[in-house]
Write a structure and sequence with these properties.
By secondary structure, this protein is an alpha+beta fold. It has 8 helices and 12 strands. Helix 3 packs across helix 4.
Length: 284
């Protein structure tokens, strides 16, 4: 097997590999070429692992982490060993692994990587049996779509007022990095929603409608001074309603397993844990 540098020139090959991975682990493809492109653009270096002429794995590393996608129809341990060696060579600080991918997890542990924390993806199909509660807003709060002029203030809300990065597993991000990761959608359903008291933003939810008709919440943040009043729940339910009206056939989000209060909120509105991602820290 050989490892080659990769990038957008290999987009179709990487997309096909991602499709095989999705179908094996999740039962259907979840990422189209545009979404794979977005993900690659977030990284600073990528690779393809080849066994002869066949692409059997791809890796992507960025400032705060990395990921490896391995073709499920190949020798998983041998390919994982090559991919993990690449992670070491590019000094990836962490990597995220599906909990069910025992072969990759075993290779990481054998190579000195240490389990750090888990993240749950929660989903629920949009169906008549799921009667979501109606949003109930705290007194004096209004909600509106975020405008471009609001972006820097919302960034301050998330990382200063809501102390997003104080939760282990969340990362502090400068404005340009945050914007490039989270403000990617171009549909009406993708516009962030702000909760405002007077002229002061106090909460925000960032929704996204993806090509597989999944409505996803990228971030949900409430200022510390406004917590305990149901504001986060109201923002979440409003964003879910908007995504469902826009055509989402399932709704979901990710949450750190250690964030018990957020997990209770999401399960409380009807979401269910669908998969676990485990983050491993590099040796040393």
């Amino acid at each position: 097997m050989i490892v080659e540098p990769a990038g957008l020139d290999q987009l179709s090959e990487i997309t096909a590999l991602q499709r095989r991975y999705d179908e094996h682990w999740f039962g259907e493809p979840e990422n189209d070429a545009d979404e794979v492109r977005e993900f690659l653009e977030l990284g600073h270096t990528q690779c393809i692992v080849r066994d002869g002429d066949r692409a059997v794995a791809t890796g992507n590393a960025w400032r705060t982490g990395s990921s490896v996608v391995i073709d499920p129809m190949t020798d998983g341990r041998a390919v994982a060993a090559v991919a993990v060696d690449w992670l070491r060579n590019v000094a990836a600080p962490t990597t995220e692994v599906l909990s069910r991918d025992e072969q990759l997890r075993e290779v990481l542990l054998a190579s000195g990587w240490a389990y750090s924390y888990s993240t749950f993806d929660l989903y629920r199909a949009v169906e008549s049996s799921w009667e979501r509660p109606r949003p109930s807003w705290p007194d004096g709060v209004t909600v509106r779509a975020m405008e471009p002029a609001d972006e820097r203030r919302v960034h301050e809300l998330i990382f200063r007022d809501a102390a997003w990065a104080e939760v282990r597993g969340h990362h502090d991000r400068e404005f340009d990095e945050w914007r490039s990761i989270f403000l990617k959608g171009d549909r009406a359903e993708d516009r962030p929603l702000m909760a405002v008291r007077g002229d002061q933003p106090i909460g925000v939810v960032l929704p996204r409608l993806y090509s597989d008709e999944s409505g996803w919440i990228s971030q949900l943040a409430v200022a510390r001074s406004e917590r305990g009043r149901g504001l986060g729940r109201a923002l979440l339910l409003t964003a879910f309603d908007r995504l469902a009206r826009g055509g989402a056939t399932r709704l979901g989000l990710g949450v750190l397993a250690e964030n018990a209060s957020a997990l209770r909120l999401y399960v409380g509105v009807g979401l269910r844990v669908d998969r676990e991602w485990q983050t491993f820290a590099a040796p040393g």
